[in-house]
Design a protein that fits this description.
By secondary structure, the protein is mainly alpha-helical. The longest helix has about 35 residues. The mean pLDDT is about 85. The protein has one domain. It starts with a helix and ends in an 8-residue tail after the last helix.
């Protein structure tokens, strides 16, 4: 039962990463040369926002579970 969260989280990260890659690639391919720089900048901003949101949610979940007294130590 310990492997289930690892597999699901790994799959979710891979699926979202692939989806973001192809979404950015599609927009990059659709843009003109003048717009490519803006598309790359927007894609970089989206990756940064996603990473910060992921870190924020992880820290919030860890803090909340610690505050509630849940045991977070690894076996």
């Amino acid at each position: 039962m310990d492997w289930v969260p690892v597999v699901f989280v790994t799959f979710k990260v891979l699926a979202l990463g692939v989806a973001m890659f192809f979404a950015i690639k599609w927009h990059f391919d659709q843009s003109d040369k003048g717009e490519r720089r803006a598309v790359l900048r927007t894609g970089g901003n989206m990756v940064a926002v996603f990473a910060l949101a992921l870190i924020g949610v992880g820290l919030f979940a860890f803090g909340l579970s610690s505050w509630l007294g849940l045991d977070l130590s690894l076996p």
